[in-house]
Amino acid sequence: MSASMNRPRPIFRGHIASTTDALVLFGACLSGSLKHIPRRIHNHEYQDLIRSGNVFIYEEHSSGIKIWTDGVSWSPRYSLGNFDIYRELEDPFSSAIDPGVGGKYAAHAPSSSPIDLCPLKPKGLVKKTISITLQGITHHLVSYYNVDDLLSRRLTTPTKDQTLRHTIPRPSHIASQSFQVPIGEEYNMEERQLVQLDSESFF
């Protein structure tokens, strides 16, 4: 296989607004119309691939990816519906960071870890993830966006993408998962949280 064919690429450009959006992409990968990424992203590829709007799906065994890495410092995980959300932090080892300067921090309790004292990066990325298991095989979706792109509607969703209009989530794919929030009850949940991004309650 050539190096270009083996290079990871986003399977979709847009935003995963709902579990249905994620299931459409999972279904497209399982049917062969989209491709799982074949391997982990290397350090020198982070700058080109870890961008707002990029969505990736990988399968643990075939890709060899046990832990997803992207070179970004992230806040602790925040559960939102059936997804996990992470906010981008300032570089924890940057000399420009002054914990005494105002700004929202990722953790409130004292800690010796530099990352616990880092403020959220202004206009930084949000990472949104979800996983499903089918026939004993786990598939992971990782998506990135920034708040401005989301609120300005610059990112389309899989359910509104014309190239995916014939991809309908299989009932068996839904029934076999243990989703915390029923399909269809999570719309606008994300945007309601985004208006509180500067409040203490987001984390």
From TrEMBL:
Pfam families: Gti1_Pac2. One of its GO terms (molecular function) is DNA binding. InterPro entries: Gti1/Pac2. It comes from the Eukaryota. Belongs to the MIT1/WOR1 family. PANTHER family: TRANSCRIPTIONAL REGULATOR MIT1 (PTHR28027). This is Gti1 Pac2 family. It comes from Fusarium albosuccineum.
